[in-house]
Amino acid sequence: MALPAPLLLLAALALRGAHGEIPTVRLIDQEGPILEGSYVTLECLTDEAGADMSQFTFQKYSRWLHSWVSLDNPDRLRCWFFDVNVTRADGRLLLAIGALQSWHAGAYRCVAANSTGNASASASAELSLRVEYLRSVFVTRAHTWCGTVGDSVAVMEGEDVELQCSADASQPPQYEWSRQGADWVVASSVLTLPHVSREQAGTYECRAQHPSLPHLARSRAVRLDVQGPQSSYQLEPGLGLSTPVLLLAVGLPALLLLLLVLGLSVLVLRRRQAAKIPTGEEPGQRTPIYKGSLESVPSVAGDQQPLVL
Question: The whole model's pTM is what?
């Protein structure tokens, strides 16, 4: 059963009295879309003039944590990820974001710092901050093992060429292809050139434009080089190598490799044989060093007496 309007008003006043002032959040000096890299400031306000704003704090909803994160305390999450600056001066509670980035987008709110129980009852309405951007433009070639295209792409005459244009943007951009020196434009992200000829060689440009911000646009140029059959490294059937030439081209390197292996084998064998030959003994009289010894040492002094009795 629906309550009468006076009872609803009394219930709202009672709820407000239980949880204190209900704050609001607004953007300061900001009109139109918010672009990446700009500077924005949020302010937390209450209906009561001269209210103590030290009792309130800013929060941002984290999609990663699935919860609201307080931005008032300079903890690691705020400094490293959100990169915001909360100030309290002249009785005002401000949140400043410099060099706005895409991760700053999301929901913000202001809530009583000492609220207990249901914090949403003493929180402001959510302010959704949307960041518009359009970054680098990329060109890829379809039906290739490595689709990334640099400043130029070389194709054979008669091939089918399909270039795909894409851009990193906050909203799906609008694409168009054009050729330098020509007056035609293709309003599509895909440029298709079937059975390309040498006359179609040149520089092609892809332009990506933000759907709601015409001044937010970027371009990427790619030079298309079309090579004829004579510049190809492929062998035509009529230009195949004859059998003697093919044997010479394959057999000569194989023969040189075989000779090199044999030469190395002979060198290694000779070194092993030289290592097995004992070194020559020095000339001189050899005298046993002890009685009954079969070993002797060279003697150059010419002693005739044994070293032991």
Answer: 0.59
